[in-house]
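tool_call: predict_structure(chain=1)
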Amino acid sequence: MSAEELPADARAVVVTVSDRSHGGLRHDESGPLLANLLRELGFSVGDVVVVPDDADEIEAALRSAVTDGADLVATTGGTGFAPRDVTPEATRRVLEREAPGLAEALRQHNRDRVPTTILSRAVAGTAARSILINLPGSPSGVRDGVTVLTPVIGHAIVQLRGGDH
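tool_result:
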């Protein structure tokens, strides 16, 4: 994997949204996988932040990452139809501008093989100088999401930083 144009100092924050992982009832697989895949692309990534399916806690984690200047803030989990799946709603509270093309591309990738991808309510966009994106809570969904991001994320970060294209 490679991310075209990714700045050498690009930083990412990964936020896992899961009541069970937050409560210690289930091992978080998707967050560490996402962090490792982003590192392979060239991002500096710290420890995965794990929060419950609670809009206020999700929002606080996202705002903290944006305030800290992360170039990319990627969530995993909480994008489905379950009553406690509120990641998109919490993300919209933080977004200043939506990037619907990213979310649409995530839903369309592999939809013939995995028809349920179109049920994702994930959103993407920007806040300050950060790109925020919601990925599914499954390892396969995370892999697919990184596949979609890989060819464009470097260019998006350069643009958001004010670079010429």
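agent: Residues 55-67 form the longest helix (13 residues). Proceeding to next step.
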